[in-house]
Specification:
296 residues; single chain; alpha/beta; eight-stranded parallel barrel; 8 strands; TIM Barrel
Length: 296
């Protein structure tokens, strides 16, 4: 089982775009190098932060290959494979996943609003078909459906379901999962600002948006917390806390893309229906960046 590959700091990679809207592959390679030089533990391709819903299938394949090539085997890669059409997902998995992919991240079906038994049937079917281990992704703020702790724990018994990215923000629910999960089932924070407290409560890591930008600082915080150095982890947490909130002030990934542009890593362009961060937010991010340059 490959659950040990997906602990610590994972990065939900953004997708840089050129001014004409095409994918900026050189910038994407630069971003991958930036995150890996910051000692992150794994990368996530085609997650929500990547703007995958605004890409066609050819572009998605090209993005995945670019990430695999740029990472050069330096860390495990998780691939976003989710949706609200179970049969289509099964057909996709039947075709396999690219060489070099170590696991998939599969989001709760959105818009359909399935019942809990529907979630169990959906993810069981995916786990049976997937050639690599599956990490569940619970984000009710985006999908309209919450996967309860009871449902998550039932799915955790499946040998090919190895973890969950929990972004419900419901600490009681997440603690129930941590308290009762199998020992080899990983719980990953889906909220950057809650990562430190969740690790203190027993979570195994995070899939982070903010770590696109301040990769080393976020990785250091997670490593410190997991190694029991809570004093240092708390200091790093609070150093980043206001900046993390600022990144999400106008949604994701507009904020982090704006910061990455300020840092010279990649541009801030997004694809409709998302729009770039406002000039006001960009100014605020630039002020924060210039006052904390030694931390990036």
């Amino acid at each position: 089982m490959n659950n040990h590959l997906f602990q610590g700091t994972g990065v939900a990679l953004v997708t840089p775009f050129e001014d004409n809207g095409s994918i900026a592959f050189e910038a994407l390679q630069k971003l991958v190098k930036h995150t890996l030089d910051g000692s992150v533990d794994f990368l996530v391709a085609l997650g929500t932060t990547s703007e995958a819903p605004a890409m066609n299938e050819k572009e998605k394949g090209e993005v995945v290959q670019a990430i695999l090539e740029a990472s050069s085997g330096r860390c495990p890669i998780m691939l976003g494979v989710g949706g609200n059409n179970t049969s289509a997902l099964l057909e996709q998995l039947e075709r396999g996943v690219p060489n070099g992919i170590s696991g998939i991240l599969s989001v709760i079906p959105y818009y359909n609003k399935p019942q809990q038994n529907g979630l169990i049937a959906h993810f069981t079917a995916i786990a049976e078909k997937s050639p690599v281990p599956v990490v569940l992704y619970n984000v009710p703020g985006r999908t309209g459906t919450n996967m309860t702790a009871k449902t998550c724990l039932e799915l955790a018994r499946h040998p090919n379901i190895i973890g969950v990215k929990e972004a419900s923000g419901n600490l009681q629910q997440i603690m129930t999962i941590i308290q009762n999960k199998p020992s080899d089932f990983v719980v990953l924070s889906g909220d950057d600002a809650l990562t430190f407290p969740l690790i203190a409560l027993g979570a195994n890591g995070v899939i982070s948006v903010a770590a696109n930008a301040f990769s080393k600082e976020f990785s250091d915080m997670v490593k410190s917390a997991r190694n029991g150095n809570m004093k240092l982890a708390a200091e790093l947490h609070y150093q980043m806390f206001d900046r993390i909130n600022l990144l999400f002030a106008e949604g994701n990934p507009a904020g982090v893309k704006a910061l990455l542009e300020i840092m010279g890593v990649c541009g801030s362009k997004t694809r409709l229906p998302l729009v770039e961060a406002s000039n006001q937010l960009k100014t605020s991010l630039k002020e924060v960046y210039l006052s904390n340059q030694n931390l990036y």
